[in-house]
Write a structure and sequence with these properties.
Elements: H1 16-23, H2 27-41, E1 46-56, H3 85-97, E2 102-107, H4 114-129, E3 133-137, H5 143-151, E4 156-158, H6 168-171, H7 177-189, E5 193-195, E6 198-200, H8 206-217, E7 225-230, H9 247-260, E8 265-268, H10 277-285, E9 290-292, E10 296-297, E11 300-301, H11 305-315, E12 318-319
Parallel strand pairs: 1-2, 1-9, 1-12, 2-3, 3-4, 4-5, 6-7, 7-8, 8-9
Antiparallel strand pairs: 10-11
Helix pairs in contact: 1-8, 2-9, 3-4, 5-7, 8-9, 9-10
Length: 321
Amino acid sequence: MSTGHANGMIRHDWTRDEVGALFKLPFPELMFRAQAVHRSHFDPAAVQISTLLSIKTGGCPEDCAYCPQSAAYATGVKAEKLMSVDAVLAEARAARSAGASRFCMGAAWREPKDRDLEQVCAMVEGVRALGLESCATLGMLTEAQAKRLKASGLDYYNHNLDTSPEFYGEIITTRVYQDRLDTLSAVRSAGIHVCCGGIVGMGESDDDRAGLIAALASLPQHPESVPINMLVQVEGTPLSGSNGLDALDFVRTIAVARITMPRSVVRLSAGREDMSDETQALCFLAGANSIFYGPKLLTTPNPGRDRDMRLLDRLGLKPMR
């Protein structure tokens, strides 16, 4: 099996079997390979810091089984209107002061209406004017909408594949996998960087985790940013009360993402609130080099800033500039 790991060679033809074989490697071997690839493309002591703000919360018509913002579930999340541009930019200024280099804006929509998109574009322009990288996640986009966001200066668009193609229908019924791929294609053709990853711990099999990474690593161009989320179980959602994922299986997922997508920034994303410092340290060793920073990820808790900065200090890690 050619894993292309020796020099971090970029491949787009990863098969599920090859990815599955990486997952099955002895843990020390997997970590060694991931760290070798990481060091050939990145400063191993630098971590990119992003802040995520929910600019339009709740009331989403999709039925994603993990999501507290779906209108289908009673989770106590109230549907709110789109925030004002001024309010968003005040949050962006606070994020910049706290050390973030990228500001991500998330809206609970199936897809944005054109009038809402104009307001988001004004936010993007304001975030860029502050010297921050901008990212948005607004649901499905048309090619024209992607071009409009590019014209406003949007740097990144987040649209996760969530899980493997085979398991997708177990998690979401209001759209299909191809809808995700079509939006990613529209974003790419508009010239916007892609932020695309998935969620683990949703009851998927080992094979499904391999399928998710294989799907990401065989995209025509690897996502520049790959968030790996651990499911945060929210009462009222269908996945509440499901069996969690073993921490070392999560670390393995990070490592396999690093090996298969050598130049992508791999983000240790949702679920850090429930992770020990030791688990997070292993994730950084496995090649994670980005975190979301701040007290909330859309609607779910995230470690406080002080805890994050203490951990980075203890590990000798520094913010990526």
